[in-house]
Amino acid sequence: MAPVTADPHEFFQTQNAAPGAAVEPSEADIAQGFAAGSNPSPLPKVFQPLTIRGVTAKNRIWVSPMCMYSSQDGFATDFHLAHYSQFAMHGAGLVMVEASGVLPEGRISPNCLGIWADEHVPGLRRVVRHMHQYGAVAGIQIAHSGRKGSTIPLRLYGTRPGFKEDAEHGGWPDNVYGPSAIAYDDGHHTPAEMTAEQIGAVTRAFADAARRADAAGFDVVELHAAHGYLLHEFLSPLSNRRTDKYGGSFENRTRLVREVAAAVRRVWPREKPLFARVSSTDWVEGGWTAADTVALARLLAADGVDLVDCSTGGNDPRQAIAPAPGYQVPFAARVRAEVPEVLTAAVGILTPATLVRDTVEEGRADAVFIGRGFLRNPSLTLTIARELGVNVAWSNQYKYSRTKTN
Ligand SMILES: Cc1cc2nc3c(=O)[nH]c(=O)nc-3n(C[C@H](O)[C@H](O)[C@H](O)COP(=O)(O)O)c2cc1C
């Protein structure tokens, strides 16, 4: 049967409200029970749009990148379409697609998503197109796992000793590399110290990945420089003992991430934002510190990074962390206060809704990323809106269940 319209995607694009965008409810909506009442004035900032370069997020509650270990050879599948779409359909302002390997050996596990080949673009484009239909900003985190590569996917944790993946199961134990030949711990492969040629190839791979992200239609690219993966490994003196221009001083340890940022910025369109996720501290004496993060944020801003996404840890098993609601927010707040030329996002146990609101309202971050909360409840944006008494649009398909329970 011929479709009713030439392009049904176009049809639904025009039909859908932008779920998650604050709207003043009509009297009819209030009377019919589809809205609780008028919005608070002023509107909580977390539900105010944020424009970065040429891209506007309709709210500041964003889905944090989360590896789903659901790919073969790096390809996006129907899982990724359904998974990322659900957040867009339910109002997330920005959805950051999980860490995607810029090289095959830059994946964490054999089941990680990839963006090292042009063949990956069509599958990603399909995910982006659907998220765009619901007005979500589509981001992708581009990543290299470094010495934490060739490990088992999350679902296999605890089923084998350690985390090493072998060649028989799709791993690349002979091609794990990092700044220095120091393993994360006994459960991970010992990396080979990277040559200057390999460092150059990685930088080019990040730029090529950004070019593919643009071809797939993404609005935002985030560099993964956190959690003990390659770029973080170069930053931290705990994992980087090099004696060449990529190791030693702060300037040398930050060289790779700056070269990557600059290379990406050269190919990534001017109107599109570039983010960088950093681990703001190693939580280990003698490691990367919050003061280092401030200094790096200043340099990255000069290289064209628009937002620093402030996570922590992941580079040393000795890390002493006491996770609690909002425990990483002070790092975002410090960067925001000391480096006004860059925006910041906060992440990590951002609950309850009032903490989400206050983090942005009180200027500790420009936006928040939420991870596990969205896995528990893909409608989290709508839930937070309700809890804060803010009326937001719902997608047309779902809006009649908004407040009525009978
Ligand atoms: C299953 C899972 C996968 C994750 N994968 C990534 C990833 O690909 N990139 C990243 O930067 N952080 C990753 N993280 C960390 C989250 O993005 C987030 O920073 C962390 O879960 C803390 O936020 P939350 O308390 O809101 O979950 C992952 C977390 C989880 C639970």
Automatic annotation (TrEMBL):
Cofactors that this protein relies on: FMN
Domain NADH:flavin oxidoreductase/NADH oxidase N-terminal: 45-388
Pfam families hit by this protein: Oxidored_FMN
Molecular function in Gene Ontology: FMN binding; NADP binding; NADPH dehydrogenase activity
Alphabetic keyword roster: Flavoprotein, FMN, NADP, Oxidoreductase
Protein name: NADH:flavin oxidoreductase/NADH oxidase N-terminal domain-containing protein
Taxonomy of the source species: Eukaryota, Fungi, Fungi incertae sedis, Zoopagomycota, Kickxellomycotina
